[in-house]
Amino acid sequence: MSRRKRGIPEINAGSMADIAFLLLVFFLVTTTMDIPTGIQVQLPPITDEPPPESQQRKKEVLEVLVNARDQLLVEGQLMQVDKLKQKTIDHLTNEGRNPNLSTTSTKAIVSLKNDRGTSYEMYLSVYNELEAAYRQVRDDYAMQKFGMEFKKLRTEAQVDEVKEKYPKKLSEAEPVNTGGE
Length: 181
Description:
The chain is elongated and about 115 Å long. It has helices at residues 16-30, 55-58, 84-92, 120-146, 156-165; strands spanning 61-66, 72-74, 77-79, 109-114, 170-172. The chain is an alpha/beta fold. The protein has a domain at 55-134 and 167-172: 2-Layer Sandwich (Nucleotidyltransferase, domain 5).
């Protein structure tokens, strides 16, 4: 009996390229790419006529400025970010009690202006405080009127009533160089 030496059997690799290509196509088709969209804000329509200027109109506006040194100025006074929410709530819910703040909630405007040197973190923290103030006054009104939080309201009429009482009028001006550096 003779023993024959066997060679190493070959694997047919002809279809390996096809399989690799199919896997590549599969992963390309099924993979999603998250693209950061930033903060979604609805901008007002563009008009050619200038806004009316009056002393009455100025007290309806709460001016919030963040300079290049990340300092927060509200109505020209330095303020800590953690106090901004309460100041905004006071402005939105004043209803004419304080003559320096807004006369009604429907006329109250919050104007946010940033310096070009403002850090993104500071901008976000200020913006979040302003958003939280609007959420708080809407939640408080909805609890008082309907007995539930704003986001849990059941009908469109309830939502519309709360938004009509406290419309979100958050104005953002284009960043400028205030010379704060």
